[in-house]
Amino acid sequence: TQLLEQSPQFLSIQEGENLTVYCNSSSVFSSLQWYRQEPGEGPVLLVTVVTGGEVKKLKRLTFQFGDARKDSSLHITAAQPGDTGLYLCAGANQNNDMRFGAGTRLTVKP
Amino acid sequence: DAGITQSPRYKITETGRQVTLMCHQTWSHSYMFWYRQDLGHGLRLIYYSAAADITDKGEVPDGYVVSRSKTENFPLTLESATRSQTSVYFCASRKNSAHNEQFFGPGTRLTVL
Description:
The structure holds two protein chains of two kinds. By secondary structure, chain A is mainly beta. Chain A has strands at 5-7, 10-14, 19-24, 31-37, 44-49, 55-58, 61-65, 71-76, 85-92, 98-100, 104-109. The N and C termini of chain A lie far apart (35 Å). The model of chain A has no long low-confidence stretch (mean pLDDT 93). By secondary structure, chain B is an all-beta fold. In chain B, the strands form two sheets. In chain B, strands 2, 4, 5, 6, 9, 10 and 11 form a seven-stranded mixed β-sheet that branches. A four-stranded antiparallel β-sheet of chain B has the order 1-3-8-7, with no helix packed on it. The radius of gyration of chain B is 13 Å and the shape is globular. The chains are: A mainly beta, B mainly beta.
C-alpha cells in the first residue's frame, strides 16, 4: 500500500494544454516535496512546501500544499514538451522519515 | 568531480552472486539513502544512514546490507542476489533536515538472471 497516492498515473497531453496532478495521503506531513525525473537520470527537486495552504510558483508550475498538510497538487500552465517526465511527490513526517509516491508520468506532445 | 556518483551504472549478475553497488558524495552530507525504483512502486527506501557508522532499515531492507565507515561513501551489498532484486537503484544524500533537498545519483540498473 502506497503511503502517498499520486494521480493520474499516466497523462498524455498536447503542447499548450494545462494540467493538474495530485498527491494524496491520509497522513499529515511536516513538509512535502515535488521532484521531476527524466529517463536515465535521478529525480531533481522542484519545490518544498512546508506550511498548510502554501502556494509556490516556479515559472509555469504552481504547487499547493493542502490546508491539513495531507495532500498537494501541481498545476502546469501551457505545458511544453520539455515538461515531459516523471513527477514524484515525497512527504516527510516529524521523525524526518520521507516517503515517495509512485509518480505521475507526463508526456507533452508537440 | 563534485556531486554524487554511483558505480557501476549497469550490472548484470546471476542468482546467488554477491553484488556491491557503490555510492560516493562530495558534499559531506550527513544523510545518505538507497532506493530502488520499480514500475508501479515509485521509489522505495531500502536503507538510510544519518551519519558515519549509523544505518537504519527502510521499507524494503530484506536481502540487502549497507555500511558507512566514511561519511562520503555508502555501499549497498546484495549478499545473494535474487531475480526480484532486478531494479534501478538510486543513491541520494542530503543535509540534516528532511525539509532539505535530496540529491540523487544517476542510478544503477541491475539485472539478476
